[in-house]
Structure formats: C-alpha cells, structure tokens
Write a structure and sequence with these properties.
heterodimer, A: alpha/beta, four-stranded parallel β-sheet, three-stranded antiparallel β-sheet, 12 strands, about 25% helix, B: mainly beta, six-stranded antiparallel β-sheet
Chain lengths: ~240, ~260
C-alpha cells in the first residue's frame, strides 16, 4: 500500500503540480509530543524517473502522522491544543535563536532541542523578533516531540506599539513580506512538530498581510471534515 | 555527476567590499583571490555572518564577553559599506548533457550580487527566502567554477539610541528581517545586524525533471484507525522535449532495530 508509481507527461520548459492518490494506512504509528507517547516518523521518498534518461531527481523527508488542533477557549480566552484528539497541557518555552552571530550548526540545534525535551517542555515558541527557524531546528523538534509555535517577523515594539511608536503599517514592502512568508511556509510545512503559525509578537500584522496569511494558511476544505471529532458517515475521499 | 545535493560549507573566503578594487567579473575569471588567502581576503564562516567571520579571524573581540560588544563599531556609525562583504569560493562539477545544476542559498541577509564564472545575477532582498539558480549554462567546462557573492546589509539597519530600548529606533522593522538585532531589553545590539550568507549553500544535480517543494498532509478517520497520506509536488521539466515520467512515492518505517517495513 505504501509504494505508488504514476506516469506523468510534462511538456518542455513547464512546471506541473501533481497530487498522488492518497496512500492508505491502517492504524499508523502516530507522532506524539514529548511526554505523551513516541515520536514515530516514517521515511517518505518521492522520486522521478524520466523515460530514456533514468532517475532525474529524488526527495525524502521524515514524516509524522499526527493531527494538531487548537482553538480559543471561550471562558478563559486562552488557546487550547489537542494532539491526535487528546487535550495537551502545554509546557512551553520562549525561543529567540541559538546564537547571536547565527553560528547555527546541526550539532548545536541537536543539543539545544534535546535540552528542552529533557527540561520536560512540549512546546517551543519562536518569537517574532527572531528567526523563522531552520529545518534542522524542526528536525530535532520532530525527533524529541517539541511542538513549535512559529511567529512571523512582526513585533509590537517595531511595528506600531513601541516607544516611540514606529512603523504602524509594518515593513515598507508588504509584497516582499508575503514572498518571504510563503517561501518559509513551503520550507517548513512538512514537519510534524510545526503546530501553529502566528502573525507576530504582541501585534497583529497590517490588515493586508494578515488577511493574506490567513487565506494562504487556511485548512483545505477536505481536511475541514476530518478535522472534526465526529464519526463520518461516508468517507469523503 | 551524481544526482543529489552537495553542501558548499568549506573553503570560503571573505573581504570587506571597500578593500577590494576588482569587480565580480574579474574575481570570477582573471583575478580570483589566492588560497591560502592574503589580505584583504580572509577565511570565512559560511553559513554565518560578517561578524562571525571577523571574530573567526580575531579582527574583533568576542562580543559575548564583558562589555566587548561596545568596542565593535556599530553599522550606524561605520556606514553600510563597512559591513558589505565579498564572499568567494570555488566548486567542481561537470554535469552531463541532460543534467542540470542548481546553486541554492537557503537564506541570505539581506540582498546580494552574485557572480559565477564572470556571469552576474542579483539575489533579491529578504532575510527569509530561498534562492535557487539553474547555472547549467554558465558552468566552466574545465570543471572548476568560481563563485563570488557581494552581500549587502539590511536596507534600514537603524541607530541604537543611547538608552537602548526594545528594537533600538525600530528602523529595522521597515525590512523583512530579524528585529532583535537592534537590541532588546535582554539583548545587546548586533553590530552588523546579522548581515551574511546565514544559512546553507548547496549545489544540486538533477536530470531533466526537478522535484519542487512537495507537500505532505495526513487525514484521519475512525478514531485514527484509518489514515491517508496526501502528497502534492511540483515537477519542472527543464528540457526542450516532452518528458515521459514515472513518479514514485514510497513510505517506509523503521521498526525496532534496523528492520525496515516497506
């Protein structure tokens, strides 16, 4: 069930977007945050072979089956998280970045993230004044079960609520902000540990940016159905 | 050339732009810097920042100790050129006829002018974006390729007020870049605002068709007994003929020990 090949003809000098038929898994090993279970990861490999040429390219990723939901609790106004349908008490820590001169080695990330897991955290919040963290950061969060709250590059202080008040309309180039945001989402979106994208720190991004981000990051309608905790009559697939 | 990615994370050199009288074309054709380097060239930390390279060469004190950060000139006082640096390296690769070679930068702060074997290209602004260039047509047939990248600091590095404060004068907020670099209540300002090739540089060899940004999503039914893996990717045919492809997805799981289930 877990090996699928499809033929595809791509015209010269063009890009084609292709969606494989969904792969079915019965009772897959699920990925759980630190302290709730194992962080099970599957090796996913996508390969393309071209007739008359052979293997042309390949891509691989460690993928975790999990469902992360979060809602605002009407009573407390706080955000409640669920993983694989189970409510989770968030024990989170703030994260700016690993080194002020950006000496961000894989070894350094491994040590930092394992340290947070050993401190019994199950979430790391990447503050909006720091970085969109790197794939190596997320890789070790996948391995050690640390959910990641990733903010985009807006802070109250620099974007309209600081002293002096400055940049009330955020960065000068909103299109550039969205180009960077979209590329960052594509870089990081397959990581099991990525739990939440957040517009900024103590500040909402300017309306046009916020609307575009919400639109780009909304859940696909297909997953709206299976994102509810209801038993489905028929399989929408 | 073997299909796949090779990181370019060794053998980089750097020099302050104002100390180099040559152009990017000359640096990557007739006048490459010598190795080992002689002034103004020095060994560079890539991935890393300008300040990381200066510290590696002991040209600045380590800003993490005592008040040494105060002895490093801030970009607001030195001007942007002082932290505008050339980074140079060379790499070998000889792809065959139907192969393509991409030069990939996973992140640069803040913008750059790139030269490869005498051909120039601008890399647009933004600290959080990838750059991937198909350089197949400008490779050096002899196999040794010379790469020089002129890295420019953020457009609005700002000035740190005497009282410091969160985000300094907030000018950095005008750019799409990390804002902590102007200093915060818990953090001294970073003098070069993290200018540099701060993330992975690589070259990747593919055949005529390239896989771009796959997206994997799982959906669950029957209380997680039934799950589906949905996979979408872009495939780019860079040849001038119709590519008849067979695309494959395979999922394996490492069971206990080294036994794999396919």
């Amino acid at each position: 069930e877990h090996l699928l090949s499809q033929d595809l003809k791509i015209p010269p000098k063009t890009r084609s977007q292709y969606t494989f038929p969904p792969l079915f898994f019965y009772k897959p090993q699920l990925w759980w945050p630190n302290g709730m279970g194992k962080q099970y990861l599957y090796n996913v490999e996508i390969r393309v072979d071209v007739k008359g040429y052979g293997e042309s390219d390949s891509w691989r990723h460690n993928f975790g089956f999990r469902r992360i939901q979060s809602t605002i609790d009407a009573t407390t106004g706080g955000r409640l998280f669920k993983v694989n349908g189970q409510p989770i008490f968030i024990r989170g820590g703030n994260w700016i970045l690993s080194d002020g001169l950006l000496r961000l080695s894989e070894k350094r990330y491994h040590t930092d993230i394992r340290f947070h897991a050993d401190m019994n955290f199950n979430m790391i919040r990447c503050w909006g004044g720091g970085l969109a963290e790197r794939p190596e950061f997320y890789h070790y969060c996948d391995i050690y079960g640390l959910l990641v709250w990733q903010e985009f590059w807006i802070t109250g202080d620099c974007d309209g609520r600081g002293i002096p008040v400055s940049n009330p309309d955020g960065p000068l180039d909103h299109d550039l902000f969205l180009v960077c945001a979209r590329d960052t989402v594509k870089l990081l979106r397959n990581h099991a540990s990525l739990a939440l994208w957040v517009g900024g720190n103590e500040q909402t991004p300017p309306d046009d940016i916020n609307t575009a981000l919400k639109n780009d990051l909304r859940l696909h309608p297909l997953f709206q159905t299976c994102d509810k905790d209801v038993e489905l009559e028929e399989d929408p697939l | 050339a073997p299909i796949g990615k090779t990181k370019l994370d060794a053998g980089w050199l750097a020099a302050r732009s104002t100390d180099v009288k040559l152009t990017g074309v000359q640096l990557t054709t007739t006048h490459p810097p010598s190795s080992p380097p002689s002034p103004p060239w020095m060994e560079a930390a890539v991935p890393g920042t300008v300040l990381g390279t200066l510290l590696r060469n002991k040209l600045v004190p380590d800003p993490f100790y005592g008040l040494k950060n105060e002895t490093i000139i801030d970009i607001a006082d030195s001007g942007r050129d002082y932290y505008t640096f050339w980074f140079f390296t060379s790499f070998k690769c000889s792809p065959s006829t139907h192969q393509h070679l991409d030069l990939n930068f996973r992140a640069i702060n803040y913008s750059a002018d790139l030269y490869l074997n005498g051909h120039g290209k601008s890399l647009p602004k933004g600290m959080f974006r990838r750059h991937s260039l198909d350089v197949s047509d400008i490779l050096n047939p002899a196999g040794i390729n010379l790469l020089a990248v002129l890295i420019h600091p953020p457009d609005n590095p700002g000035r740190i007020p005497p009282e410091g404060g969160q985000g300094g004068d907030h000018e950095i907020g005008k750019d799409v870049a990390a804002q902590y670099v102007e200093g915060w209540d818990w953090m001294a300002p970073i003098r070069d605002r993290n200018t540099g090739i701060w993330d992975e540089v690589s070259i990747s060899v593919t055949g005529p068709v390239k896989i771009i940004d796959p997206h994997l999503v799982s959906s669950f039914f029957d209380d997680f007994k039934r799950a589906y893996l949905h996979s979408t990717a872009e495939f780019e045919n860079r040849s001038s003929w119709l590519a008849e492809c067979s695309i494959t997805i395979q999922v394996t799981a490492e069971l206990e020990g080294s036994i794999c289930l396919i």
